[in-house]
Design goal:
The protein is built from 23 helices and 4 strands. By secondary structure, the chain is mainly alpha-helical. It has a two-stranded antiparallel sheet. A two-stranded antiparallel ribbon has the order 2-3. Helix 1 crosses helix 2, helix 9 runs antiparallel to helix 10 and helix 21 packs across helix 23.
């Protein structure tokens, strides 16, 4: 069954031989005479210790358990399975494991060059074993998620689930696919099935993501705390701490977020998302020099377009436009590289163009993204791009979708509230603008190094709400 570990067999753990030895008395004997009368007592033999795990075994165990693997372990697993398929080209399982490991390493490193290799390996696995190859189908779902191709992720994930409905590690893939497509009800149903099949830290972390998307941030925080406490491997624990840090930052708690991010990096030096999170939190805490240092370190190893955008905006907020332009250039370069590897980074590029490039181009890109993925985060970006392009009336329609608790899944996002408030201010809806700008700063006073100060400036310009006379009540009215 696919829930069980496949691949190289580890060291024998069943029958263990114990060597029991006694001290051995050695004498130099010549003609029954002990020469020199010297007796040599040899030390007792020690039982053999446990054999070292096979190369890649920790990453293999992590992938089979649905938990994050450390980058060095992923590298070992890739090397081990690459050797295996060279020696045994008909080994469908090794091809599937190799492809899944490539996809995960590409995601962790923000290196889309791994994605074509992953697809080739996974499709080779399906060609070698076209029937009942659940592992390859699930690997293609994971690859599609890494590429942000959510329709394909749903298609592959559902195909894997049809073969093995009780394979619990397929459900997290489907939850992410449904969430990426804006189908919160399907994500909740998949979570219910998952929790009925399995329990443990990986399930708690997945539940936390669903709770967060439905606006249940307290439940999300509690579930993540339990996931962190139950995690066994440092890389796994670090991944859940990074998730907890992002949640804390969204809730306007940069000091708590910083603690989570720092502990994640201490446990797993390859946890670059947590390192970038440190930059976000340090900037919010008014420590820009430290923030710049950790952002640069994260980008050096994981050149993610989103981190480049965040670092560029931090440079802008510090009055360093030339340094900001360098990061924006990196962002464009990484988006092009992502497209070469089949990955979709149109959302982050659209956000960048709206504020720092060509708002008209942002509108065109984000309209196409909205047709692919009618979700709250795309509605927010498109509404803001329309506003920046001078089409605030249409922009408000999308801003309303982005801040609708039903369409948005219940998330009250500070950035979306800020965008809505600024659009309303442009349209002369001062009361609504004042309300939503205040709400943005209440949710997270430090949501952006550029946006948060702009929200405060706009509120000051709007001033206090005007005093309105209370209408007299006609006492003779029925």
């Amino acid at each position: 069954m696919e829930n069980q570990q496949e691949g190289p067999v580890g060291p024998e753990t069943g029958r263990k031989r114990r060597v029991r030895s006694r001290p051995v008395l050695i004498a130099a004997v010549a003609g029954c005479a002990v020469l020199g009368g010297v007796l040599v007592l040899l030390p007792r033999e020690q039982p053999a210790g446990p054999a070292a795990p096979a190369p890649g075994a920790p990453a293999m165990a992590a992938l089979d358990s649905g938990v994050p693997a450390a980058l060095p372990d992923l590298g070992e697993l890739i090397d081990e399975r690459a050797r295996a398929v060279r020696e045994r080209p008909g080994d469908a399982t090794s091809w599937a494991v190799l492809g899944t490991a490539y996809a995960e390493r590409g995601r962790r490193l923000a290196d889309p060059a791994y994605y074509p290799r992953a697809e080739k390996a996974l499709r080779t696995s399906l060609r070698v074993r076209p029937q009942r190859n659940t592992r390859a189908l699930a690997g293609l779902a994971a690859l599609s998620l890494a590429r942000r191709d959510f329709p394909a992720a749903r298609r592959w994930g559902e195909a894997a689930l049809e073969l093995e409905p009780r394979r619990w590690t397929t459900y997290p893939l489907l939850i992410d696919a449904y969430t990426g497509l804006g189908d919160q009800n399907a994500a909740k149903r998949a979570l219910d099935r998952l929790t009925g099949l399995h329990s443990g830290p990986a399930v708690l972390a997945r539940a936390a993501a669903v709770y967060r998307d439905r606006g249940r941030r307290e439940d999300a925080a509690a579930s993540l705390a339990d996931a962190v406490a139950g995690a066994r491997d440092p890389a796994e624990r670090a991944a859940y701490l990074e998730q907890a840090g992002r949640l804390a930052f969204e809730r306007g708690e940069p000091d708590v977020a910083l603690r989570h991010f720092r502990e994640a990096v201490r446990l797993d030096a390859g946890q670059r998302a947590a390192q970038a999170g440190q930059g976000r939190a340090l900037a919010a805490l008014g420590r820009p020099t430290e923030a710049l240092g950790v952002y640069r370190a994260a980008l050096a190893r994981q050149p993610c377009p989103l981190y480049a955008l965040e670092l560029g905006e931090l440079y802008e907020s510090l009055g360093r436009p030339a340094a900001a332009r360098v990061q924006y250039g990196l962002l464009r370069e990484r988006v092009r590289a992502a497209a070469t590897g089949g990955a979709d980074e149109e959302l982050v590029l659209g956000r960048f163009e709206a504020d720092h490039g060509d708002p008209g181009a942002a509108v065109r890109r984000l309209r196409a993204e909205w047709r692919r993925r009618p979700v709250a985060e795309v509605a927010d970006a498109l509404g803001w791009a329309l506003h920046r392009a001078g089409e605030s009336v249409e922009g408000l329609r999308f801003a309303l979708v982005a801040t609708d608790p039903v369409r948005g899944g219940g998330v009250y996002d500070a950035v979306a509230m800020y965008h809505r408030g600024m659009i309303e201010r442009e349209l002369g809806r001062d009361g609504a603008a004042r309300r939503h700008l205040t709400e943005a700063l209440r949710i997270n006073p430090h949501f952006s190094p550029l946006g948060a100060p702009a929200a405060r400036t706009a509120l000051e310009a709007l001033g206090e709400p005007p005093d309105e006379e209370v209408p007299e009540i006609d006492g003779g009215a029925g």
